[in-house]
Amino acid sequence: KAPLPVTPGTEAAGIISATATLVSKLRVHDPAGVILPWTTGTCAEEILLHERQCVKLQRDASRQDFIDFVALGSNYQTAYFALVHRAPISDWLAQTLLILGAAGGAGVAALDIGKVLGAIILACASTQSKRDVCYSRGADIAIDYSRRGWQ
Question: What GO terms are given for molecular function (predicted)?
Fold first, then answer.
């Protein structure tokens, strides 16, 4: 348990606002993602980091690029750990993977990773637009779980 006061947050991406003299890979105004394994403190307007804790993003990074980078840390790490380390199936090739909430952050990550592992993806989502997202990510079947009797 962290001593108080604590600033929460483990993922971040943004624009470099200042650098130290010896920093060589990052410049002011560069877009960057933050890599802080098992650390907190990113829920702040500005954070002070070592250069090796940052990954430079492409110069024309969009808001969506920042969101995607941050999702890698939480959503994809969670899905990977579940499917590779905790799932009872040692080989996902041609196995069926049912994903509830498949259009959400962790759901999309599970869909992407499950597809790479060769699983047959049954993606559950409540709206047509969310099911369209699932199909666009490679779901084999998208199920409307808001309808009675979908099970």
Answer: oxidoreductase activity
Supply φ then ψ for residue 56, to 5 degrees: -70, 130
DSSP state of 38: T
How do residues 75-99 score in pLDDT, each as one tens digit?
A: 888 898 888 888 767 677 888 999 9
Q: Looking at residue 93, what is its pLDDT?
A: 80
Does this model's pTM top 0.70? My answer is no
What domains are defined for the chain?
Answer: 1-61 (no CATH), 74-151 (3.40.50.720)
- Closest residue by Cα to residue 29 from 61, 51, 52, 53: 61
> At residue 106, what are phi and psi to the nearest 5 degrees?
-70, -30
Tokens of 100: 């509830």
Nearest to 125 by CA among 103, 105, 148: 103
| Cα radius of gyration rounded to whole Å, the chain | 19
Residues 6+ apart with CB under 8 A from 94: 118, 119, 120
